[in-house]
Amino acid sequence: MFLMGISSNCSDTSSSTKRGKKRARVRAHFAINGASLCRETCQLFFDVKRAVLYALIQTVNRVIVHRERTGTEGENLNTH
Questions:
Q1: pTM as predicted
Q2: How far apart are CA 77 and CA 70, in angstroms?
Q3: Which of 10, 17, 73, 74 gets the highest tally of CB atoms within 10 A of its CB?
């Protein structure tokens, strides 16, 4: 119930700011079971600090970028 209240509070995940300007950085989008959530709700759900959540995001982004650059499908990728 508590998470439902928080998730309804932070449903704004638009690509523009409240003044109508385009965001300088792309926002990270979080989803649990297909439901879109904000960063605060995701932190509460997984019970992690902000630094831990950002470290996880950076790790995921590094792996995705590495796989896109290689262009080799079906081969073992070195993620070090």
A1: 0.43
A2: 8
A3: 10
